[in-house]
Amino acid sequence: MILWIIQDGKKTGPLEDYEIREMIREGKVNRDTRVWHEGADGWLSACDLGVLASEFKVVERDDQEVIQIRPAPFRAWPRLGSRVIDYLIYRSILHFFSIACGVNLWDPVNSSGWVVIGIVLPVILMEAAMVGSLGFTPGKWLLGLRVETLGGQRLSTAQAFVRSMRVWVLGMGMFLPLMMVMGLCMSLWFGKKKGGMLWDLQSGFQVKGEQLTPKRITWFWVILVVIISINVLPYLSEILAGDEQALQEKLLRK
């Protein structure tokens, strides 16, 4: 949402709502700051605007001191590692499903927009179901990460679906290799710069994480190797023989 604010007696904008969220967390915008957007009847207090209201949820102690809820810090490598694990698991499920059905979902010659949707939509639904009911995906569970609102609540089904859709369309490029690389690079850059992913900052979500232990790191690498091995095993003989043509034909048959 595009917003304007009154700051130091001057009108400032246009600003994206996630930019104002960041200003709130930095103490540059408070609950009484005047905010306006197209279609509004007039200027509102920031705390009265729906997209910003969650930033002003507070806990009051007996001495009336106000404690503002702040998002968890952005942790790039656990986030990337968990996404790689999730991607490989989802791709493996879709791969074996396509083999069972005799359909090659990964053939670039025969792929169409509907095939791309047929690949991405089940992944979005799977991830949304897990995040909405459990608060994590397999990769996030493995690395001790959990998705929640800034107030610490689990996401609703609708919130989890919208978040998952943004992740796999914007962040993972709908499984299209070039778009995926671009999406991952942009996501990491944005997270480092803004302190969170675009889809989380826009909606008031956060990803909280436990301390990474040697045990978690070891299990991450073990499971990563196992998943990759399972996917490579059907083509191992062609890979070891260095027969690229046979490997390509086998991939296309699958």
Description:
This protein has helices at 17-25, 50-53, 76-101, 113-133, 138-142, 157-171, 177-194, 198-203, 214-232, 236-241, 244-253, and strands at residues 2-7, 10-16, 34-36, 44-45, 58-60, 66-68, 145-149, 205-209. The two termini are 44 Å apart. It has 2 domains: 2-68, Dna Ligase, domain 1; 76-253, no CATH class. It contains 11 helices and 8 strands. The protein has 254 residues and is α+β, with helices and mostly antiparallel strands. The strands form 3 sheets. Strands 2-1-3-4 form a 4-stranded antiparallel beta sheet. Strands 5-6 form a two-stranded antiparallel ribbon. Mean pLDDT is 79; it is low at 58-67. Helices cover 55% and strands 13% of the residues.
Question: How would you concisely characterize the structure shown here?
Answer:
By secondary structure, the chain is α+β, with helices and mostly antiparallel strands.
Calculate the terminal CA-CA distance, rounded to whole Å: 44 Å
Radius of gyration using CA atoms only:
22 Å
Number of distinct helices: 11
Spatial strand sequence of the major β-sheet: 2-1-3-4
Number of domains: 2
Number of beta-strand segments:
8
Oligomer: single chain
**Percentage of residues in DSSP E strands:** 5-15%
SS-derived structural category:
alpha+beta
Mean residue pLDDT: 79
Largest sheet: 4 strands, antiparallel
